Amino acid sequence: MENKANTFPKLLIANAQRFANRPAIREKEFGVWQTWSWVQMRDEIFALANGLAAMGFKRGDKLAIIGANRPRLYWGMCAAQCLGGIPVPVYQDSVASEMQYVLDHAEVRFVLAEDQEQVDKSLEIRENCPSMQQIIYDDTRGLRDYDAGILHDFAAVQEKGRAFAKDKPDYLQQEIDKGTGSDVGIYLYTSGTTGKPKGVVMTNDNIIITSRNSIAFDKLTEHEEILSYLPMAWVGDHIFSYGQAYVAGFCVNCPESEATVHTDLREIGPTYYFAPPRLFENILTTVTIRMQDAGKLKQKMFNYFMDVARKTGIDMLEGRALSFKDKMLYKLGNFLVYAPLKNTMGFSRVRLAYTAGEAIGPEIFDFFRSLGINVKQLYGQTESSVFITMQPDGEIYADTVGVPAPEVEIKINDDREVMYRSPGVFHSYYKNEEATRETKNAEGWVYTGDAGFFADNGQLKIIDRAKDVGKFNDGSMFAPKYIENKLKFFPHIREVVTFGDAKDHCTAFINIDLEAVGNWAERNNVPYASYQELAGHVEVYKMMLESVEQVNSDLAADPMLSNSQIHRFLILHKELDPDDGELTRTRKVRRRIIAEKYDVLIAALYSDVKDCYVKTEVTFEDGRKGAIEATLNIQDAKTFTPVVQQEAA
Length: 649
Fold this sequence. Notes:
This protein is an alpha/beta fold. Among the domains are: 8-203, ANL, N-terminal domain (Rossmann fold), CATH 3.40.50.12780; 470-648, GMP Synthetase, Chain A, domain 3, CATH 3.30.300. It contains 22 helices and 29 strands. The strands form eight sheets. Strands 4-3-5-6-7 form a five-stranded parallel beta sheet, sandwiched between helices. Strand 24 and strand 25 (506-512) form a beta hairpin. The longest helix is centred in the middle third of the chain and has 22 residues, at 296-317. The termini are far apart.
């Protein structure tokens, strides 16, 4: 049955038979978890699919999915696919203009919106999206007095679907039977670091085969529990919360809100977890802050047993031989420190955790693994259905991202760019044949845009985005992301942008982490009235200087990157923000926009001035525009003689 299930509706039918009353999805609402079994979820999806059919939804139609992780929004994906339609998830925090581009470009006819906020944005852009005809909403709050012309309550659509099914009982199954693995299953739009987002066209085979291979690699089963809290428009959530969930048959849990994710994580106790490095860094920052506020005895115990964990925890996790004393000390540490800490973080039951998207600091990586949490790295992208490399158990390293995932081939071309081909390779970019040809060649090899190489341990190591790798004026390599990630390993640094291509040396913009630095300010009786005031404080500059000089010292020992030491830096007066166009919705730096917007600051970094005035346009939460201005200090940093030169001397 499984191999015949080459579409998600067919998988749904198979799972309703195989797993029946096992939990398929949960949602927390008003503090209470509500659960739907596979049978119940099938019935909910079929009612919606029939309702869509009654409203005129046809094969090839697009259904935009806009909102946070909600069962009904996930059901919308499968309901559209039942009818041969294509779901188009949209980042829920997109401003109206960003949403308009995606909906218009994808020629969306139907919209499934979570709540009033998303309905309002849909109505605002309706005139500029001529294909849009119907809007279905999940949460009815605030929508009672809206013109019901094109608006439809989710439950009412399902009722319409149940009536439709009575009149045409065979219609839906006939439509499902028409589906094949080679059919287009979804459009996933890229975050658009360099321009407009591209619509990545994925087939059912892309997602299902990749999900099946990755499940086998990590021995996932129907007994896994995951918390789905990352954007539904992101390919990672689509694989973990949809692709793998349908193929393996495990349970997806939707948090009550973004604000309750941590509490909900503790209540669910997932066995399988994914987070980008920044979230692992945030968790460690929170732990560090709490321990700084703890009593002396608790601090002493924590520090002692964390030393024990650092020495023996990873060996314990990987099943290596340990002395009786080390085993007993670790078990005592687990009772007193590690187990309570994992419970606080919501990781008590985690059997497998993945991180990807950026480099993760070795100290952070080892911290979690030393606690007995099986954190691994993977490397992937939207165009690969996530998985390009994976780390096998027992071969887990902080500085490499694994071996080729099952059925994935990898090669490094003459420009040091990583290339791959696999069953997960995307079909095309929607309405963009030129970009498709530039990214995927005739033999099916995909250009990742990332520079990398295979390390001595046989695993892939990523240096940077190939297009971002530049050269200093002396010809040495400038890899901005690599330097930025080293600085972001410090808990008090949230974001970094470095400059150096076609320059004599490297300089940097720094964003402070408001929570970490704010806690430091509170403990040290440092008053501040705003982010801007705290960022400009002389003691905060000293803190950043220490971190920059530590990174410079580390870089001096790297033969390839010793010339990348940061000579000067400044702390930005505002956080880089997706609403201001400085970051993508997945928080990737838009380098070109930042270079244009802050050209006066970059020029100042490469002069001998000690400060620079800047006035910056910002977008407030309600969409209004404003401006903030500041005179920013520019700090010189100590650089170190490269180790290679020291040895030569």
